[in-house]
Amino acid sequence: MDYTYADIAKMIDHALLAPTLTGREMEYGCGMARDYNVASVCIMPFYLKRCAEILKGSSVEASTTIGFPHGGHTTAIKVAEAQRAMDDGCQELDMVTNISKVLSGDWDYVRRDLKAVIEAAHARKQKVKVIFENCYLKDEHKIRLCEICAEAGADWVKTSTGFGTSGATLEDVKLMRAHSPAHVQVKAAGGIRDLDQLLAFRAAGCSRVGASRTKDILEDCRRRLIR
Question: Which of 142, 213, 129 is nearest to 174 (CA)?
């Protein structure tokens, strides 16, 4: 094996974003993520403060979404969301780019929109993942977004929300890795349900994946490492 349990666990952002999740399910999910020592819990904004309380004292980050899931919020609202999230304990923000503006080729707007949130987060020493929602985009859009994210100082570029028409693909991850500088990491999300898929995305250049089947993935990881 060319990995340890910690290598795999610290790749996972445990996703608690389904709108049907109950408070009890989110409470359990945060505790489970802490027990398995993942990278972060990405949770619906209204539950973020409680999530941060549960994770306090651990190495698991509290994270949430900004402009989710379509990126169509005004920039001012995205910044306000980001500030409130950080007030509630957020350490990583997963922000959706304005898909309409990307498809319209309004790259100045896209750049300003991203920079506003990234600068607000970095001013408070927190990090930003920019979600492209690649299922709606052509390769030329993805490449330009990688360039703009690098210019704007994004910490990660991310394939998908998990709520689009399709999720992460290896081809997209390879494209995003090839067109992003080394200091910009790549995250895959949407459809990663087992350890083999996670390892394939890792080999393609991902440092993070979004997953809801975290427990199954990490239990499989433990079984393989014990063999």
Answer: 142
